[in-house]
# Entry
Amino acid sequence: MPREEKAQIIDELREVFSKCSIGVLTDYRGLSTAEITDLRRTLRDSGIKYRVVKNTLARFAAERADKSELVSFFEGPIAIAFGYGDIVEPARILAGYIRNSKTSLSIKGGFSSDRVFTSGDVETLATLPSVEILLGKVLAGMQSPIVTLISCLANPVRSFIGVLQARVKQLEGG
# Structure
């Protein structure tokens, strides 16, 4: 590979390392081409890029992106799933793919903009609910006391209106 092409790949990887919200490193050893294509399609449907990287070039790119703690992960065949939105999504899709397809794909680790994850951390991340679900739970928790307060404040008024309506019916009937 010519030196200019290597420099271009390093720059592309450095930029991707800097811009992605999460990267999950996988060992794809033992996967057939059809399995990798299927995995890529599954990830692409969720807006996640899956890229096989050359270790030497990835090490240089990680160092240039100020992610030198990743250098130790780049041994053996490595492919990285780059996510740009919810950081849970790539981990969940990869863990689900491994569980459902029973392939030899394994998660080696991962990284976000400010943190490096071990394979166990990525597995734990895969079990977390999505951001939308967590926000819904927080919102429901915030709404619950307000709804309860409004209900408590409205009960005496409802009771008073019920008494008035009963009195009106009594006077009309009598």
Remarks:
- Residues 92 and 126 are 4 Å apart (CA to CA).
